[in-house]
Amino acid sequence: MRSRLVRVAGIAVVVVAGLSGCAEGQTVPRKAAHLTIDGYTRTTRPAACSQEQSYRTIDIRDRDGHVQAVVLVSGERVIPQWVKIRNVDGFNGSFWEGGVGQAHADLSRGTYTITGSAYGIGNSNPNKVVTTDFKIVADC
């Protein structure tokens, strides 16, 4: 009887250790981000996300382009603070809360969606400031 109890206890330890080992080593890869600039949508690498206090930074690098956005997370609300767009389809521009452009942000199941307009310049006419619509969809 004692031998059977030791064997059952040993099997239980192996099963628990095996299950805890699976949970630690597995990560779920993030989905690709999607950028829409002036009506043109591209799929990019997954976003690199970081958080400092209530501010979430979403960083998307793709080919020669770079988009960085910061949102303030306040309970259920997500408030865009700024968006910088650098060399995406020839556009360089920004949105700044209380400054230039306008934006709105939503968060649903770990996916941030930021839409709005940015002021900047395009390669086609670098001497003229333009307003360009953007949309960022990124998992964090």
UniProtKB/TrEMBL annotation:
Keywords: Cell membrane, Lipoprotein, Membrane, Palmitate, Signal. Transmembrane segments: none annotated. GO terms for cellular component: membrane. Residues 1-25 form the signal peptide. This is Lipoprotein LppE.
